[in-house]
Amino acid sequence: MLELLNDFLWGKLLIAMLIAVGIGFTVASRFVQFRYFGRMFRIFGAGQAFSRDKHGHLSSFQALLLSVAGRVGGGNIAGVAVAITLGGPGAIFWMWVVGLMGMATSFLECTLAQAYKTAEPDGTYRGGPAYYISRGLGRNWKWLAVVYSFLLLVTFGFGFTALQSYSVATSFEDAFGVPVIYTGIAMAIAVGVIIFGGVKRIARTAEVLVPVMAFGYLAIAVVVLAMNLEQVPTMLALIVKSAFGLEPAVGGGIGAAILMGVKRGLFSNEAGLGSAPNVAAVAYVPHPVNQGGVQALSVFIDTLVLCTCTALIILLGTAYDPTLGTDVGGVALTQASLATHVGEWGREFVSIALMLFGFSTIIYNYYLGENSLNFFSEGNHMLFNAFRVAVIVLCGWGATTDLSTVFGFADVTMGLLALANLLALIMLMRPGLRILRDFDDQVEAGIPRPVFDAANFVDLNIDATAWEIEPEDRQGTGRFVAESAAATR
C-alpha cells in the first residue's frame, strides 16, 4: 500500500504539480530568480541580511543558514549517487533544471510566509504554510492549515528525526566501527542541549555548524576538481549529452534520467514542500521579497552547487563507469568515489560530513515540529517540553532500529504535505505576485531598500503588528509609501 501511494504521489502527481508551479511562477514573475539573482548576493553585501530589529529577531542570514541546515543533507551525498546510479549522468542535468525552477517556487512560498507571519507576545515571529493558508485563504480553508500542520509534525518532527539519526549512526558504524547505540546517545544529548535553548540557540548553532559543513564539503570538492581540472569540461558535457540520450549510458535512458533527476532534485532542495517557509517567516526583513530572494539562493546552494560537487566527485572517480554502471549505490558510492581521489580517508570524510548534515537536519526538523505544535496550541510550554523530550528519545531509538517501514510512511506523509502546500501556492499566487510587484515598483522608483507597508495590503489579512519596520530601513521610502497609500485609497 505504501509503495503504491508513493509511486502515485512522487511518480506522477507531485512531479507534475511541482514543475507546473515552478514554471508557472517563473513566467508570471518574469523570471524573478534570474532577474534578482545578483540582488540575492547584494543583500548580504549591503548588510541587510544581518540586520535585526529592536526585539532581537533572527536576521535574514540566520534564517538562511537554518534553512540550508535542513535542505543540505543526505540528498546531497546519497541522493545524487542514487540519481546517477539509476538515471545515469544525465539525471544531474534535470536536477539542475528542477533546482532553477525550484528557486522560483521557494521564492513564492517564502515571500508568502514572510507576508503572512504573525507577531508573538514575546516579540518573536511565527509563520509558514499553515499561517498563509489560514490567513490568506480565509476561514473556509482552516481545515487545510490543520491538516498541513499535522503532516508537518508527523513527517519532519517525528519521522525524519528518527530516520536522520538512523542514517548517521549506521554510517558511523560502517566507517569507524562505533556501535549505533553510542552514536544515538551522543546525538540525543547534543540535540537536547540545543533544542531546550529555543529557536535563537538553534539559529546560533546553525550559524556555526552550517558554514563549517558546507564550506568543508566544498573545499574537498574543489581539491578533487583541481586534481582533475582537464576532465571537468568533459564530465559536464557528458551530463548534458546524457540528459538528452546523446551518450550511451546505463540507467534506463532519457526517461530514467528525467525521472530520477526531477525526483532526487525535489527531495534534495525541498522547494514546494513548505518546510523552509516555516524558518523563512521568523526573520526580520524590511520586505517579504528580501527573504524570498535569500531562500531562493538556498535552493541554488543546495542543488546547483553542492549536488554538482557530489556528482563531479563521482563522475571523475573510478568507482563508477558511465557505460557499465556499478553495484555500489547511495552513500557507499560517494565514499568509494572520493576514496579514489584522496585515499581511504575519503570514506571517513564522507561519514563525518553526513553526520554534520544529519545533525543539523535533526535540529531543523525539531523546529518545524515546534512550529506546527504552536499552530495548534500557541505558547504551550508544557507541550513544547514534551515534544523536546520525544525528539531526544527518537534520536536514541532511531539510531538502533531498522526504519524501512517508517521511511515508506514518511515518504507518503511528505507527499501529502507537498500536495497541501502546492494547492495553497496555486491559490495564493496572485497575492504573491502583488507583493513582488510592490517590491519591483520601489526598485524602479530608485529606492535602495524597499519596505513593506502593511497598510497597503489590508485586504490580504496581514498582521500589521508583525510589520513594524525599523526607522533606518525606511530611509528614502516616505514619498513612495505615501503615494502608494493614496493610490490604494
TrEMBL record:
GO terms for molecular function: amino acid:sodium symporter activity. It comes from Marinobacter subterrani. The keyword Ribosomal protein does not apply. Keywords: Cell inner membrane, Cell membrane, Membrane, Symport, Transmembrane, Transmembrane helix, Transport. Pfam families: Na_Ala_symp. GO terms for cellular component: plasma membrane. It is found in: Cell inner membrane; Cell membrane. Belongs to the alanine or glycine:cation symporter (AGCS) (TC 2.A.25) family. It comes from the Bacteria. The chain crosses the membrane at residues 12-32, 63-85, 91-108, 143-163, 175-196, 208-229, 235-259, 299-320, 349-369, 381-400, 406-428. This is Amino acid carrier protein. It is a multi-pass membrane protein.
